Input
Amino acid sequence: MLGQVIISGLLAGALYSMVALGLGLIFGVMRVLNVSHGPLLMLGAYTTFWLFQSFGLNPYLSLLVTMPVLFVVGMVLQRLFVSRVVDAPELSSLLLTFGISIALVNLAQLAFTADLRSVEYLTGSFVLGPFAFSKSRVIACAFAIVITTGAFLFLKMTRLGKAIRAVSQSREVAQVCGVNVARIHMIAFGIGSALAAAGGTLVAVMVAIQPEMGQVYTFKSFLVIVLGGAGNYPGALLGGLLLGLIEQGSSLFLTTQVNEAVAYILLVLVLLVRPTGLLKGRA
Amino acid sequence: MKRLFLPALCLILIVLAIYPIKGTGYGVRFMLQLFMWIALAQSWNLISGLTGYVSFGHIAFFGMGAYTAGILIVKLGWPWLWASLAGGVGAVVLALVIGWPCLRLKGPYFAIAMLGLNEVLRVAVSYFEGLTGGGSGLSLPALYASVPIYYAMGLVALAVTGLTYVIVTSRFGLRLMTIREDEVAAEAMGIDTFRYKLYAFLLSAVGPGIVGGLAARDQSYIEPISVFPLIMTITMIVMVLFGGKGTIWGPVLGAVLLFTLQEMIWARFIYLHQLLFGAIIITVVLLMPRGILGVLQQKYNLPRTI
Amino acid sequence: MEALLEVDRVIKRFGGVTAVSAVSLSLEAGHIYGLIGPNGSGKTTLFNCITGVEAIDGGEIRFKGRRIDGLKPHQVFHQGIGRTFQVIRVFPELTALENLLVVTTNDYAAARARAEELLGFVKLTGLAGEFAGNLSYGQQKLVEFVRVLMTDPELILLDETAAGVNRTLLNDLLEAVRTLRDRGKTVLLVEHDMKMVMGLCETVFVLDHGEKLAEGPPGLIQTDERVIEAYFGR
Output
């Protein structure tokens, strides 16, 4: 029983980590709390659904489409809107991304209606000894790990990645070293959106797709960032796994409905006790 | 200009007071809802417009008021006026419970915490199913009382606007604004920001609590989806941003303009109308952060306390 | 004579960095003190520790014999300590007068009278009704300076008040600080302007890399080898 819970927790957690990393990047680089992160994930899910329905495209292959597409969408959103509030008080960027999220959700509702959609691709479970895990969860986790590892390698090894890390630490110093900060902002938002889209694609196979599906992921991504420490990218990984474990763990004691509230209560608790995150982070 | 204002205001109030005698049923209900939105927007302004602490879950107080009043009416047979006032009290209690921990957080973190509030309350409503009727909602005994409720809503709208006037023109209000301007400096100047935020938060819950109760009575039915919907929070926010946050008449202006537009044109195209709200928020934040009143203030050099 | 403010082996760490390392200093009432040191030596952090903006990780801070470390900033303020900030923190959407009025809690008429008096003191009476955000840099500095004086604090911490201010204004500020001292107030200022510090302060503390390097009258500090090395040597 315990083993099942732990592994389920880690499976779910990996996905949370990936999506939260996207949010964390945007916050770390620009100090913007991207309330529209969930809707971006939702757009990824719908894109996967549409490709699956219209062309029969394997949803996992659609990652190759959703990630680049949402990367561009993210860059456009940043260039057109978010860039103008990067230096404004945080209230402005909060309201702005809130406005963007409303716009995205309702665009989706206009385009797809609120009817629940799903991608019926993979059903059944892998059975490993006494444990059984749904196939789509395992594969989602696998992809999440690959993508997240890729993101970290990118951040650590490439010049662009280093520039992003530099801007996260100190914008002025990065500028003085010749980094084009505006470009980095755009790219970071793009990457963040791409990671959200990847989450959407992977999730599309598992849950019902509807325009408001993203909201809970926005919130959970915030929670992960807070758990792991704002601006602490490896922290986001641990935070995600932690959230996955806690959720699966508490589901043993609580009804499904009450379990949904666990994330929210956890967030308030953590913010009160250690606002800079359980691991090291910047406020 | 200034001297015309007070008489004009009195005239409008008199007209509104006698309207139900002449007005159609539809007209009365329209105005009743407009008053409700004025009260909601004005209340949101008290916390978010003045202190800059964005309350994304403010509709929770509306829902709390609705359920408190509804339960009192259905289970204990209270008259609706008292039940609604009790709804206000219930909302303030909820605000205390939420505000006590959450207002210690800095602005952005507070906003995130409030984002989740709706969900927690929806869960709470289904958990206490016996009391609240859970997902199937709560039905009130039928009662046609549009006209008395019209007056009740109108009084609440008037009261909250009056409260805003008193606050904005007082040092209490100035201190709330310093929290928005620079919280660190405010603390350094001896202002106990937590206490001030809490007061503002509690005051901002009264209006929604009472009108929640009144609305429940008016609809004779409470459903979790209808009392905790995100769209109501969005509407409150848009009205205040559009009209002018932190001002006295901004929320009124925003409520009047947007609600009228909403009823006349957009209610038929619900997603388009929400999309437009999103677009308005984006536009206001980028182009006119102080709303319409802000633009007018700058153009005609009006005082800040309007 | 009992010290007004005692900073007793205070330690402040940020993650792996020790910003303030067992710093001790003692201020007596009615004097002007200077706190100098190269950039990053921990001066503003020390201010933040004294005023409660940052919680300390070790040591004690005592004001008039009572411990104040652990108090929240607004509580420290009410003990009788006022401060200005390195980066100007006026309230831009409030008028100059309102910036001052938000401070005191006693009756309105008295507060207003005092606010107007203080604005007159720095020759800003004409701009009392102007939004602080619209004032010039120097004017904002003055507003922030007199704002601190609204409640007549006994200890005033000034963080780089001279930065970016023209000569005339600077002289007015210096005069104001001397007047405060003559009235029995205590001033501790952080400054980069050496001439100002040496001309104004009676005792100077030098910080470097979070540690107190030296302490003494300006003349002695100027010739102290360690100080010279800290600023120019390494």
Residues 28-228 of chain B form one domain. Residues 52 and 181 of chain B are 8 Å apart (CA to CA).
